[in-house]
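Practice set, problem 2.
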Amino acid sequence: MKNLLRIMIFLSIILITFFYFDSSINENDILEAPRQADPLPAQEIIEQPLVVERPAEGVSVYIGGSSEDWIADYGQPERIEPSAYGYEWWVYNQSYSNYMMVGVKEQEVVQVYTAGTATDASPYNIGQVLEELYRFTIIEDEITVKFGTNIYTFSLSAEDRETRLLVSFDGIYAQLYIDKEDGMLEAVRFMDAETLIRHQPYEMMYVGDLLVTAKPSSMLQTAIDKANAKQVVDLTNVYRLHHQQRPLIVNPAVSMIAARHSQNVARKNFSSDEIELLTLEERLESSSIVYEEAAENTASQYFDAAEAVNGWINSEDHRDLIYSNRFNQIGVGVFGKYYTQSFLRQEPAKAEKQ
C-alpha cells in the first residue's frame, strides 16, 4: 500500500511538472546587437598602406557601376524596397540558391548582399569554412576607410572575428557573415566606402566629418519595416536550406501579431507609459490562431534584416529555432530596429504563401 502511494505521488509530480513546463510554447529572450560606443573623433588616423587587389569576377565587380549594367546581366528584381540609408534594395528571391539583395542609389550599385550558394561571390564561396577563409584572406582587427577628405577606422571585436569579418579591397569592402557554430560562411556583403560608413557596423573613430543619415519619415519608416520583415523571412528560409531544412510558409496573421509585438517592445523601451507585453501564447490565443507548437525569436538594435538574422544564428537558443524541423510556418514583424520572428506548427497548414 505504501509503495502504491509513493508511485501515485511520483506520477502526480510528473504530471504537474509537465503541466507547468509545457514545451509547446518557446520564447527566447530578446537578442540585442552588440553595444557600440558612439563614433569618436580622433586627432590623427594613420592610413594603412596595404592594398588588396579588387576581385576581377563575381558580383562585387558591379560595385560603383551603373544599375543598367546590372539589369543587363541579372534582369529586373522581384521586389524593390526602401532602406534607411538612402539606397533602394533590389531583391532577387525567385531562387533561394541565387538569393541576392542589391543596393542601388541614383542608378549606381553601391552594395551587393548574397546568401545564395549558386551565386558567384568571388573570391568567396557560400559554405566555405572559417579556417579556409583565414588561409587566403588578410584579416585585420582594424580597417581604415577614406571617403573624400575624411578618414574612418573600424575596429573588430573578438566576437566580430568569429561571426562577421570585414575585409578591405581596392575601393570596396566585404563583410563575411559566419555561423560560428559550424564555422561556415553563410553570406557576403560587398559595398562601397560610403555605404560601410553610413551603416557603422563596428566600433568607429574618424578624422574629419561624420556622415549623418537623415531619419526617414514615418511613412517611409513603415515601408522600411515591411521590407525588413520580408527580408527576414527570405533569409530565414535561405539559411534553413543551407542546413537541409524545408522553407517555412508565411502566416500573414502571425506576421501582424509579430509586428504589433515589435512595436510594443519599442514603446516599452522608449515610453514612460506602462505597457504590458503579452506572451506569445496570449497573443496567439487572443487572435484565435490554432497551432500545435509555437516559438519566437526577438532582436533589437540591428541596423537591417541581414544583421539581425546573423545575430540570431550566432546565439545558440535563437539558432536552434531557425534550424528546427518542428515548424512549418513563420510570421515576422519589424518596427524600427526591433524584430520579432514567430514560428508555428499548424496541421494542416492553413497559411497562404506571401
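Problem 2, part (b): a different protein.
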Amino acid sequence: MDNKRDILSLLRSVAAGEATPEDALLELKLSPFEDLGYAKVDYHRSVRQGNAEVIYGAGKTPEQISGIVAAMHNRGCGNILITRIGLEAAEFVSRTAELDYHADARLAVAWPRTDTPSLGHIVVATGGTSDLPVAEEAALTAEAMGNRVTRLYDVGVAGLHRLLSKLDVLMSARCVVAVAGMEGALASVVGGLVNCPVIAVPTSVGYGASFHGLSALLSMLNSCASGSAVVNIDNGFGAGYLASMINQMEGLPSQEQHKEASQP
C-alpha cells in the first residue's frame, strides 16, 4: 500500500466482498516499513503525509542509496527524491535505476513518472545567480511533488527593478520561495508585495560577515513582512516541500468529501 488511494481501494474491495478481511489485514501488515538492516524504509509516509519518503543522500554510501531506491521501486514507488547526492553516487544508482540527476542542485529523481500533475503555481525567486543550487533544489522538489513552478532568478534588491518587472508573476503565485544570501533582504521585499505565503531560504552565499548564511537567516527571522516563514540555511528541499503542501491545500479532500465519494 503506497498511498491513500490504494488503501481506499482495498477497503472498498472488502466492503464489496471481493476480498476477505484477512487478505486486507495481511496486505496492511506488509505495508508500514521494510527493514534493510541499514535503513527502515517507511512505506506509509505517503499515506500519512501525501508524499513518499525522501532519501537524504549525504552520509549514505552509493550501495545504501541504491538499495533503498530498489526497495521503494519494488513496492511501486515512483518519483523517488534523493537529496544531497553527489555525481559518483548518482552514477552508481543509475546502473540499476532510471535516474534524472541534477548536478547543480545535487538532487536526483529515481524512476521519474511522466504522469506527474502540474498543479497551482509556486514561484521560486533568488537574490543572485550564486543562489541557484539551493533554489533548484526547492524548484525540483516542488515539481516532483506535482506542482507548477516558475523560476525568477537573479532578481535581488541590488537591482530592484528586475523584481518589480515580474510583479504579475509574483501576484499569480499561491506560494513564493525567496532564496537569498548576503543580507537576505529579498524575502522581506517579496513579503511586502504578495498576498500569499512566502518561504524564506537563507543561503551560505556572501562575504565573511555573512557568517556562512547566519546573517541572512537572522535578517529573515527578523523580517517585518507578514506572512513569511523561514527554513534553515541552504534548505531548498524543506522550502520546496512546504511550498508544495501550501500550494495543494485547497485540493485536499476533507473527511466529509471522502465519505460522500465512497457512497454509491
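Answer key, part (b): The first strand starts at residue 33 and ends at 35. Residues 199 and 242 are 8 Å apart (CA to CA).
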